From TrEMBL:
Belongs to the FMN-dependent alpha-hydroxy acid dehydrogenase family. The keyword Membrane does not apply. It comes from Amycolatopsis silviterrae. Residues 1-341 form the FMN hydroxy acid dehydrogenase domain. Signal peptide: none annotated. PROSITE patterns: FMN_HYDROXY_ACID_DH_1 (PS00557), FMN_HYDROXY_ACID_DH_2 (PS51349). Pfam families: FMN_dh. Its cofactor is FMN. This is Alpha-hydroxy acid oxidase. CDD domains: alpha_hydroxyacid_oxid_FMN. Keywords: Flavoprotein, FMN, Oxidoreductase.
Length: 341
């Protein structure tokens, strides 16, 4: 099985350089992008021994969705830039792995088609000021079988991504479109970043959908407190993979305080910089219930389609299984903060 770094190298060779940069890049000088991974390297595990871990397991349940391991696939846009099978390949591999695929609002395959091959499907939303359109997209996702809604809240405006400016990457190639943005006439609308989104709009969202609702992109503990008070069903502790605000705290550094404030009342998903099973174990020990992966999945997809995504997810599963047992835990719930320094 190839490493994620090896798959990234193959992906880089295969991809149009502007598309590689779109996937790999972050905002500004990419300090936050780098910090996400560095924070994992800077923390070390201090394992416990003699704990009879012969029978250990990785499965978790998050907001009613079963995950065979505490790892899910984050929403990322435009999979058909990486491979002709796009989101279908990713969703199939994720279903095989028995975990959650979060379909991006900006997917290049319609959510209805993704749902046909996905197992546990969640849907990510960029709230659009045209509420009728927003409601229609949510209905599409829910009717297709999405089991949770992930509202991205870290993107009031689009981050300043220097690589995209340099490459003048503004449009998808002919034949590709953000298929969930088609309106009833078949026209594909531009995706609007939700600059005026407020907590009150979340109340409206709760009225128009029955899906459990996650907020994605929370790093401030007070926002986490408010989310719990507002009845939100779960939180992605995330800085959007360092693609929005450069200079922002890394996701892992933000996690412990949020975990302490939330105190188990809603599930926490950490994403940003997770590249190995040891990373997964560190995040779980510091309070996450599961982690999300973004770029590694895109590298697998670009390198080898469905098989490449399967390779990434299987590698992460095996590494997590090993790291969990070597830390003296029998399940993710037994990982505690004292295991990380
Ligand atoms: C190419 C790319 C596209 C993304 N598209 C979306 C998106 O459509 N919606 C969203 O909420 N987050 C999006 N994200 C952010 C991811 O969901 C996730 O937060 C991030 O990739 C996690 O960091 P990692 O790539 O280091 O694993 C995107 C990230 C990348 C790299
Ligand atoms: C205007 C297109 C919006 C797609 C946003 C995808 C995304 O979140 C990213 O980080 O890129």
């Amino acid at each position: 099985m190839r490493t994620i770094a090896e798959l990234e190298a193959i992906a880089r060779e295969r991809l149009d350089p502007a598309h590689y940069d779109y996937y790999a890049g972050g905002a500004g000088e990419e300090a936050t992008l780098r910090a996400n991974e560095r924070e994992f390297h800077d923390r070390v595990l201090v394992p416990r021994v003699l704990r009879a871990v012969g029978k250990h397991e990785l499965a978790v349940e998050i907001a009613g969705s079963p995950l065979s391991m505490p790892i899910l696939v984050c929403p990322t846009a435009f999979h058909r830039l990486a491979h002709p099978d796009g989101e279908l390949a990713t969703a199939r591999a994720t279903a095989e792995a028995g975990t959650v695929f979060v379909c991006s609002m900006a997917s290049t395959t319609a959510v209805e088609d993704v749902a046909k091959v996905a197992d546990v499907l969640w849907f990510q939303l960029y709230f659009q000021s045209d509420r009728k359109f927003t409601e229609a997209v949510l209905n599409r996702a829910e009717n297709a079988g999405a089991r949770a809604l992930v509202v991205t809240v870290d993107s009031a405006v689009r981050g300043r991504r220097e690589r995209e400016y340099r490459n003048a990457f503004h449009d998808l190639p002919p034949g590709l479109a953000a298929e969930n943005m088609r309106d009833e006439t078949g026209r594909v609308r531009d995706i609007e970043m939700p600059a005026d989104l407020t907590w009150e709009d979340l109340d409206w969202l709760r009225e128009v959908t029955n899906m459990p609702m996650f907020l994605k992109g929370v790093v401030h503990p007070e926002d986490a407190r408010r989310a719990v008070a507002a009845g939100i069903d779960g939180i992605f502790v995330s800085n959007h993979g360092g693609r929005q605000l450069d200079g922002e705290i890394s996701s892992l550094a933000a996690l412990p305080e949020i975990a302490s404030i939330v105190d188990g009342r809603v599930p926490l998903i950490l994403d940003g910089g997770v590249r190995s099973g040891a990373d997964v174990v560190k995040a779980l020990a510091l309070g996450a219930d599961a982690v999300g992966v973004g770029r590694p999945v895109l590298w697998g997809l670009a390198a080898a389609g469905q098989e490449g995504v399967a390779e990434v997810l299987e590698r992460l599963r095996e590494e997590t299984d090993t790291a969990l047992a070597l830390c003296g835990a029998r399940n993710p719930g037994e990982l505690t903060a004292d295991l990380v320094r």
